[in-house]
Amino acid sequence: MPNNQETLLRVEHLCQYFPMEGGELKAVDDVSFEIQKGEVFGLVGESGCGKTTTGRSIIKLYDITSGSVYFKGIRIAAGTRSYVDAINHAKKEYKQRIAAAGSEGEKKKLENELDQIIAENKKEIKAAEYDQKHCDKEYSDELVKKANEKYLPLIEKASGEEKTRLTKEYKDELHKAKRTKLVTQIQMIFQDPIASLDPRRTVRDIIAEGLVIQGERNKKVIDDKVYEMLELVGLVREHATRYPHEFSGGQRQRIGVARSIIMNPDLIIADEPVSALDVSVQAQVINLLNDLRDRFGLTLLFIAHDLSVVKYFSDRIGVMYFGKMVEMAPSDELFRNPLHPYTRSLISAIPLPDPTYEKQRKRIVYNPLADHDYSVDKPTFREVKPGHFVSCNQAEFERYQAEMK
After folding, report:
1. Nearest-CA neighbor of 16 among 6, 2, 27, 7?
2. What is the DSSP letter of 246?
3. Reduced 3-state DSSP string for 190-216
4. Cβ distance 309 to 282 under 8 Å?
5. What is the pLDDT of residues 153-209, one digit of tens each?
6. Which 3 state secondary structure label does DSSP give 320?
7. What is the pTM of this model?
8. I want to staple 28 with a disulfide (CB 3.0 to 4.6 A). Which of 50, 74, 164, 187 is the partner?
9. What distance in Å separates the CA atoms of residue 204 and residue 313, rounded to the nearest whole number?
10. CB of 31 within 8 A of CB of 50?
């Protein structure tokens, strides 16, 4: 894990609900975590637990239901559901309290308290809607300001060909600054290397798309950058004119990696980038990501369900179950001291190339109804020891602490 503790991404109480017949599906429910600059944060859990939805919500492919996502200290995504629920809950609660009040003075006091709660939550809703809509524009305005500060004094002092060159550079920089969004500093490597690549476009067009959208107009700059990325991920220049169907699964995933790193992102969300590949190719792609991490100082959110891969690649690991984070700890600590029954169940399912061990290995089955009694005391996400968090109630918390000792 990196020595610096600069927080690049902070997710607070993220909820992503989807409407469905008869109610709604809580795909992600109150998930919080941070990712430090330069680290790899692994997110694991069984299929359907909300890992991919978490990644897609962070990169704003979905409008989140509630909670906040901060990137470089700027709120890039915000939901309003929690504030609306708080207003409705307060109205219901205060209606009963006002009806039971004994005097007009007490009623007036309660009404004022209710008005204050409603006003505060409406203020939060307004702020959330503003941040959701305007965070990219404010980031773009900041880049325009920097371009003006850099080039205008130089252009004013220059003359002749030098002035012409600087003016052209300034116009290009300004054009790109106006089209740049903060969220483009987060890129995603998708799970399916076939479905994520447009079959009607060449590899060159696929990899260069982000640069074109951002406003790069120099064809030579684009081509040189594409060739550089292809060679960086283990492909060759000749591949630029081909189409996705002409490549193997591992090569397609390398194209996906090239498409993401060409934007020089600060954060990459790798959504199960090796799950659709053969074991030998998995190792190649993981090693490629490791090399790129060391070369560019990348920060990664690595989503997977293969714990053995996550252990090798991640600094910290978060375990999700049914849309909730149930445990989070440094990689070595999680495997050495798994506390939540679901985490123990996942670790017990990891096979090893040892016939003797495999004959004796006992699979732990996680049954929430049998393993927990939350009828009275509900679970919360608690820090059992520094850096090791578990979803548990008070009785479980005390038991976990005793186990750690």
Report:
1. 27
2. G
3. CCCCCCCCCCCCCHHHHHHHHHHHHCC
4. yes
5. 998 888 888 989 999 889 888 888 888 888 889 999 988 878 889 999 999 999 999
6. strand
7. 0.88
8. 50
9. 29
10. yes
